[in-house]
């Protein structure tokens, strides 16, 4: 059977058991600018590539949801912003109802339901964006990966987006060192991982954010990012990258 007979909506499954609309949404994530997340027991770091706009301004790839939580994304920006607004609403509603900060695990359960609902109706399409969610609460630091298929995974380190396999290889190779890392070292590991898909010579347009113990979610400015880029120019072993 031809594919186009089964790819008009998300409620029709092909004879091979595939839902093509979900696969198309996953491809949109793969074509987005790479973003990396990694954590230890005290901190979670996000690092994301971005393309400057025609005016030379920065297009936000990392967005704070609250003082304890933020996201980065790869894929279709309007879809990512829709999920971002949903998270803002969930966070605000919980704060008003319970006079406290929403547990990160609970927020991720609600977000997973939101994403999964898009795959169950013929009049909707899956979100074409993948998210990395960094948070910190009473249970410690958190890193979640959320994909258009409604897969929500709790991670120690991960990467999504274009050529992200290179970044994942770096993270897998160095993951055993993250738990003992200081905040600065963890940030440098994130930058080294995100640098991999670009190559050493190419200019690095990057956003970096951190959240953790006694550290509210913060997206670094240009000067602070440049400082960490220089720190990350040497490998953990002291050798040049």
Automatic annotation (TrEMBL):
<feature type="domain" description="Proteasome alpha-type subunits">
    <location>
        <begin position="6"/>
        <end position="28"/>
    </location>
</feature>
<dbReference type="InterPro" id="IPR029055">
    <property type="entry name" value="Ntn_hydrolases_N"/>
</dbReference>
<dbReference type="InterPro" id="IPR001353">
    <property type="entry name" value="Proteasome_sua/b"/>
</dbReference>
<dbReference type="GO" id="GO:0019773">
    <property type="term" value="C:proteasome core complex, alpha-subunit complex"/>
</dbReference>
<dbReference type="Pfam" id="PF00227">
    <property type="entry name" value="Proteasome"/>
</dbReference>
<keyword id="KW-0647">Proteasome</keyword>
<dbReference type="InterPro" id="IPR050115">
    <property type="entry name" value="Proteasome_alpha"/>
</dbReference>
<dbReference type="Pfam" id="PF10584">
    <property type="entry name" value="Proteasome_A_N"/>
</dbReference>
<dbReference type="GO" id="GO:0006511">
    <property type="term" value="P:ubiquitin-dependent protein catabolic process"/>
</dbReference>
<dbReference type="InterPro" id="IPR023332">
    <property type="entry name" value="Proteasome_alpha-type"/>
</dbReference>
<comment type="similarity">
    <text>Belongs to the peptidase T1A family.</text>
</comment>
<protein>
    <submittedName>
        <fullName>Blast:Proteasome subunit alpha type-1</fullName>
    </submittedName>
</protein>
<dbReference type="GO" id="GO:0005634">
    <property type="term" value="C:nucleus"/>
</dbReference>
<dbReference type="InterPro" id="IPR000426">
    <property type="entry name" value="Proteasome_asu_N"/>
</dbReference>
<comment type="function">
    <text>The proteasome is a multicatalytic proteinase complex which is characterized by its ability to cleave peptides with Arg, Phe, Tyr, Leu, and Glu adjacent to the leaving group at neutral or slightly basic pH. The proteasome has an ATP-dependent proteolytic activity.</text>
</comment>
